[in-house]
Amino acid sequence: MIICISVSSVSIRISTTLSIDDPVFIDHIKFAVQGHFEKDYQNIVDVIHKLGTKHLQSISITVPGSLNSDRSKIVIASNLQSWVDRPIKSLLQDEFNCDIYIENSTVSSALAEAYYGSGQNEDFVFIKWGNGLGGSSVRKIDNKINIYSFEPGHMILKINGNLCSCGNKGCLETYVAGKGIKEIYKKNPNELTDYEWNEVIENFVDGIQQILSIRPTKLLIFDGGIAVHHPEKLKEIKVLLDSQLTVIPCPTIKLCQYKEHSSLFGSVASIKYNDRYKLFTFHL
Q1: Helix (H) or strand (E) holding 244
Q2: Handedness of CA 172, 149, 242, 177 (dihedral sign)
């Protein structure tokens, strides 16, 4: 049995599966992030013990933020700060005595699309558009997956613009991601007016053009809460992007195949690639 854990800035999902080749998830459990690592960790441990550990083979956990070189802990996570520098891997290994895998949630979700979903047999750029804004570039070289993790949310969109949780001003995610939208408009994305959405889309398209100038691609795959719950906005992005790009062709835009379950599929894909292939992840 494999325990799959998906951690975001607001919630934690835990599920189980028996296969990494054709994963089917059971025992879906979801609970809120408490804002304190000790409480969050204890809730995770309690749920795993309730699910049973007799046939437990491995635990795979996906988390927001950047990991250290041996993927044992988070070193940067502006939206999950209480988890930073906590020895997640060693704590879980000591508690459950099994293989532990930890991966960035955007990287793992991109892996899910590369192996199981919309990005099979293609190179693509993956954008996670939710409370924050993350990205990965996926390239296939010699039949191996190469994943380049990057931070589109912290590209500078406006000089001396909105203050970001990273400490810089004018970061893209302060204008288009969920947290930034709430700061600007004092409401959640699903409450925005058409005029307010137009502002968000225009800013996002400006940012996407920056991304494509550095990482040109024929395929953009979107994931994350905003993309999943507002797929019509991807069509608006496509139309505006197509009208503004002049040097490079406009890529195809797709919604992720597994939607709110992409991080769970990603946790399994991370095991598959770490075990059977050499996984190269470059944090730029």
Answers
A1: helix 232-244
A2: negative
